[in-house]
Amino acid sequence: MAEIIKNASAGTMESSDAFVTIEPAAANQINIESAVEAQFGESIRKSAEEVMAEYQVSGAKLTIKDQGALDCVIRARVETAIRRGMEA
Amino acid sequence: MTKLVKNIREAIELSGLRDGQTISFHHHLRNGDFVLNMVMEEIADMGFRDLTVNASSLFDCHRPLLTDIENHVVTRLMTDYVSAGIGHAISEGIMDTPVEFRTHGGRAADICSGETPIDVAFIAAPSSDPMGNCTGKFGKSACGSLGYAMPDAMHAKKVVVITDNLCDYPLQGWSIPETCVDYVVVVDAIGDPKGIVSGTTKITRDPVGLVMAKNAAKVIKASGLLKDGFSFQTGAGGASLAAASFLKDMILKEGICGSFGLGGITGYMVDMLNEGCFKNLMDVQCFDLKAVESIKNDPRHIEIAADQYASAKARSSVTDNLDIVILGATEVDTDFNVNVHTDSTGYLMGGSGGHSDTAAGAKLSMIIAPMFRARLPIVCDHVAAVSTPGKDIDVLVTQGGIAVNPSREDLAEAIKAAGLPLIGINELKAKAEALTGKPAPLAHGDKVVAKIIYRDGTEPSPIYSVK
Amino acid sequence: MKRSMLFIPGNTPNLLINGNCLGADMVIFDLEDAVSPDEKDSARVLVRNTIKYLNFKSLGTIVRINSVDTDYWKKDLDEIMPYTPDMIMLPKTGCPADVLKADAYMTELEKKLGLAKNTVKLMLLMETAMGVENAYASASASDRVGAIFLGAEDLTADLRCKRTKEGREIEYARQRMVVAARAANVDVYDTPFTDVNDDEGIRIDAETAKAMGFTGKASISPRHVDAINEVFSPSEKDINYAYEVMDAIRLAKEQGRGAIALHGKMIDAPIVARAQQTIAAAVELGLGREA
Q: What is the pLDDT of residues B128-143, one digit of tens each?
């Protein structure tokens, strides 16, 4: 099980990217800001949950500032944020 | 006699404006315009109610108008284009009566035919003489062509010219003659030059935009229309300009000379004129300083009125003789219907302008747009608003392939023969969705906030409020 | 037949996701120079996901990893190898030992992942004086090597000369690379042309490389891709001549004649070999028919 031990971030605010921040928390929590939230909010949440589950993250607050990123980009940024948050 | 009055208020008083009447404005000063706000401030102060504003376009600088709408000074709006700031308020339901969107040609046609009569037209004029002979070609607020103001000036019951550069009579090279003008008002400034014309229009450097542009130019070549005497219009978007740039190289390389370039004119079109790509420019509006300089100095660069540009009711208009037009889109559906009115969240942020007019007239009407934008596929099942009907669109060029309207089998054959990546519109949609995922449908509100009046008078689809 | 290869910065989603729309025969997802040290980790994951989730099957995918003298290259391979790009580009290849080092680790990973050996090929980027001098030795050090590639920017710095558009300073390196590649039976790619806005310059530079025997050419701008593809495709004239050659020898065989002439010139074995290469390339590019 992966423990998020520090605040970390990944990605950028550029178009087609996402800026993801992660911080330790009591339970998992995902916040999404996106211009296409109506169309893709659910998909973004689902992908973030899947990556968190893959790393068995159980206590993290994840914030995704989406700039119209494709799913593979969202997943990459979430994964990098998790990895960075796990490092001592 | 004198037409000079001491201020805007006096001009309004003399015009005989009454509650419930229609006033008009033109948008050559674009986001730098002071005139609409100055006039509306007086009108509101004078206690008028229930007016109709017929403005060729509305920009964010016109946001004070929203207060007049809230106060019922203005209760009806007719326009061809709104920028996002105004569009946002309309989409949230600020008007009780739906806004009427026309095309640039449609607006001019309805003004000329008396369908939408104007009681008082206010003409922002960068230079005028005391009798109202006026032009946009020079003066500190120079904007070039006054094409969209011309039908208003010809057909309004009263015409007020507002200028910040009063010249001796007779002004040389007027665009609108004194015969149309009732009153002339001199003010300190009719606009902010920074907002009127941009310094330069830039070609995209985005690689995806360049790929689309390159393909667009190749499609034009494949269409067979690029020969001596051709005519051409393009939007001022980065990818459209890049397409024009590739096209220019082709034209010069092959030694072809076109008849005319049309439209809102950018410095890029001026370069094409000067390098011999065509013999003339027909200009209804200037977009940048280079275009303003050119229309002032070069007799080959011709100012045209909005009705001559694109009216469907005129005996003929220039768009009828247009060969090629490159246009943009926020959405295209699988029937090739195009939306340029609303954005991906359903808010108004545009309008037809000359989109539908040129698409209807041109022998080749091309949409250039990325396969997806901010994760939203450009091709959808049904556009939220039909700005231009699919029957008038021949081809959609994206970086993921070129989709040709099934009605243009000849064009599809030509594109295929040229070795360009042809793709069916449904396949293009699927290809984009394979990358983006399928977007959840966007729900809209119940209130009709705007209607689109197509150039033939039909109303293809209402625009609803946002939820 | 892969003529053009386009560099795409590894941490730039907007370009990565459009990599297959930019006209190049191959894309190079760059984890090396285009990525700053503190973003190596994120670029790795992003490039991996791009290959994993997006369908780039229609074109060649190459990942430029960091060189074997850094701390990054093994991590790069760990992340990327499971998703089997066509090639790994090894920058700053100086000598056969560099190749063997990368090859050994790739073999280890392939075994661990249950992949056949040499599933992923190596493209060696030679961009130092040592690298160019050892070109043949490196290219033939492992049968994993599929291509070598000249990097003239770093090379000219190493040579202490100025990089020019005309490229006189890299003439020897280019020739040496082509000879080494052909001797080792691998493909060989020319250095990118760096003036993005010089449409005439890229064409001349590509024609020079083509005339010297290069397989194709790299590009740092999508603007250059079309010119490269055009220059490295067989011309209509070449294709027609190749068919004439093949028709002539077929006719000669039917008539039982030995020596044959076409347009007054003897057709010998090298001419036939070149005609066959031209036709093969034309067929692959959809420009010709089988002979």
A: 999 999 999 999 999 9
Q: Quote the strand ranges of chain A, DSSP E.
A: 8-10, 18-24, 29-34, 60-66
Class of B4-196 per CATH?
Answer: alpha beta
Provide the residue count of chain B.
467
- The model's pLDDT over B402-444, given as tens digits with 9 standing for 90+, comes to 999 999 999 999 999 998 999 999 999 999 999 999 999 989 9
Nearest CA-CA partner of B26 in B64, B65, B66, B53:
B53
Q: Which amino acid is at B115?
A: E
Instruction: Name the burial class of residue B301, with classes exposed (0-12), middle (13-18) and buried (19+) by CB atoms within 10 angstroms of its CB.
Output: buried
Q: Which residues of C touch A (CB under 8 A)?
A: 12-14, 16-17, 41-42, 45-46, 48-50, 52-54
pTM exceeding the 0.95 threshold for the entire prediction: no
pLDDT digits (tens, 9 = 90+) for B28-46: 999 999 999 999 999 999 9
Which residues in chain C touch residue A10, judged by CB atoms under 8 angstroms apart?
A: 42
pLDDT given for residue C289 in this prediction: 67
Distance (Å) from the alpha carbon of B241 to chain A's nearest alpha carbon = 21
Extract the tokens encoding B376: 């939203």
User: Is 70 exceeded by the pLDDT of residue C94?
Assistant: yes
Domain positions in chain B are 4-196, 207-442
Average pLDDT of the residues of chain B: 95
Angle at B314 between CA B309 and CA B315, to 5 degrees: 115
What is the torsion angle, in degrees rounded to the nearest 10, for the CA atoms of residue A63, residue A69, residue A70 and residue A76?
-50
Architecture of domain C4-232: Alpha-Beta Barrel (3.20)
User: Which chain B residues have a beta carbon less than 8 Å from that of A13?
Assistant: none
Q: Using only C-alpha atoms, what is the Rg of chain C?
A: 20
CATH number of A8-86: 3.30.230.10
- Compute the average pLDDT of residues B271-293: 96
Q: Does CATH number 3.30.420.40 belong to domain B207-442?
A: no
DSSP state of B167: -
Region B282-296 average pLDDT: 95
Which residue ranges make up each domain of chain C? 4-232, 236-284
Contact at CB, B435 and C54, closer than 8 angstroms: yes
Residues on chain A touching B373 (C-beta within 8 angstroms): 68
Average pLDDT score over residue span C5-10: 96
Count of all residues that appear for chain C in the document: 291
**Which structure tokens are listed for C120?**
């992923």
